[in-house]
Amino acid sequence: MRAYPIPLSLTAVSTVALAPFPTIRFLLNPPISDKTTSLFLSTSCPRFLFSKFRPNPFCSNSDATSSDTNEGDDDDDVYFDDDDGFVLSDEKTQTLSEDGFFIEIKKLGGNSRTIRSKIGIEASLDTVWNILTDYEKLADIIPGLAVSKVVEKKDKFARLYQIGQQNLPLGLKFNAKGVLDCYEKDLEILPSGKKREIQFKMVEGDFTRFEGTWLIEQFNKGKCKGNEAFAGQEFQTTLSYLVDVKPKMWLPVRLVEGRLSSEIKTNLSCIREEAKRVISALNSL
């Protein structure tokens, strides 16, 4: 694993996640204007549309002035933590493993990545949907997600403010803050079952691009063969998390992809466990 020097005088920041969004809690902690900070501390909903984070560079082996020229250098030298069992591939297979989990990272060129992940869940689409859209409770489900607040809510739309925290080796602690817009799509009935999705986009944070989809699919019995994780069920439900990510130029994508992959697997697994808990509670009534 390649190490990057990190000045202890700087903190880190951003947010996913879906998180729900996957809690991207290992990035940069940019200073926020006094006006924006006071809104965060008030009881009223903060307005994020016109405030912008002003991040400072960290985690760099070169001067800030040379960042632009080095942005694409990672294309042929990508760090990947093989011990975590993640896949860096152009293959389009989405076969679930024995534990019902799949994840894949694709290089898009430059500093961009696409991450596709999927997990099997022994619960209905509605159960998983209710967990994902109970946005403020996500902080109780996702480890390290310290805050998940709804700052604006309309029909089929939510704007979230999230803070995540994570301890790293050598005593370092990274904080993550960010604002995420979530668009709740209508239920779609399919010949094989049904699906519903939440599209999300980071509107403030430390990424040039961070947007994607939470997709819940429920397949009728017999329509999705070959997955041992669903043996004996009348239906099969999968939760997919798809995201395109491009960190800003001072944040090495090699650092992002390894940590983000680990975060995604943890978050999906926690949502699956919460769904199991909900089903168990209903069955005990």
Automatic annotation (TrEMBL):
Database matches in SUPFAM superfamilies: Bet v1-like (SSF55961)
All residue ranges annotated as the Coenzyme Q-binding protein COQ10 START domain in the record: 121-268
Database matches in PANTHER family: POLYKETIDE CYCLASE / DEHYDRASE AND LIPID TRANSPORT PROTEIN, POLYKETIDE CYCLASE _ DEHYDRASE AND LIPID TRANSPORT PROTEIN
Protein name, as recorded: Uncharacterized protein LOC18613832 isoform X1
Organism encoding this protein: Theobroma cacao (Cacao)
